[in-house]
Amino acid sequence: MSASTNQWQYGKLRSSHSWVLWVLILTGLLSAPAAWFLRDSIALGRTPLPAWTVLLVGGLLAIAGLFATAAILKGRSGPPKLITMEAGQFTLPGSMLSGPGWSCRLDEVSVRTTELGFVKQMHLSGPRKRATLSSALFESDADFDRLVHALNQSHS
What we know:
Elements: E1 7-10, H1 19-38, E2 43-44, E3 47-48, H2 51-77, E4 81-86, E5 89-92, E6 102-105, E7 110-115, E8 120-125, E9 130-134, H3 141-154
């Protein structure tokens, strides 16, 4: 958390979660060649899949993996973004994946959380925008929990 209690840093993958970056890099680099070599040997049940299907899925996995890797590397190289709550306003910064940021009144923001084992997600809905924030991109799980608590307190 930054100096002000109404600001949270977001957008930098924690070093404890950096293995995700390596998985994405390997997925991006190995999916297309693996699909090429396995194009005639993958079957669904006893029916072999057409080669074009295997190549298409492998290519899409490669593109998605490399795109996600580029987004994470770009996020790591830039300054962290600040999520702010001031004077009844909630401001969420934009990113390469989510597009431009948005701002709205605190009473217009609805919050839902999901726990996915080692990472938590916060689903935010505003009047015309939605966003999903991952706890892995906060400085700590405690910062993530403080933001969830602060948003829930604003509705009480």
